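User: Fold this; tokens only.

Assistant: Input:
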Amino acid sequence: PVVFAHWGGHSCGEEVIRTLCGTPAYFDVSYGYGVMARTTALEILDKHGPDKLLFGTDSPWHTPSMELSMQSTLGLSDEDKEKINYKNAAKLLDLGL
């Protein structure tokens, strides 16, 4: 599988929605939502789903606490947060968790 950084592309939300959402690709959620509109992040979540998102920070520009804080504003269920924060990566890497 392919993993795209920054929610599929830094400052490319509309292009990501149009061309990448719904594909088998994964997106990490590093340094994206902080620079894209909340509505764009919500549309990516809706069209691509939480099953293909991976936690990331793009440290040192965004810290883990910054990314988790931004994530908390998206209204995700606890199950979706777990998927994004570790379960999707464990599945992708076949860690057997």
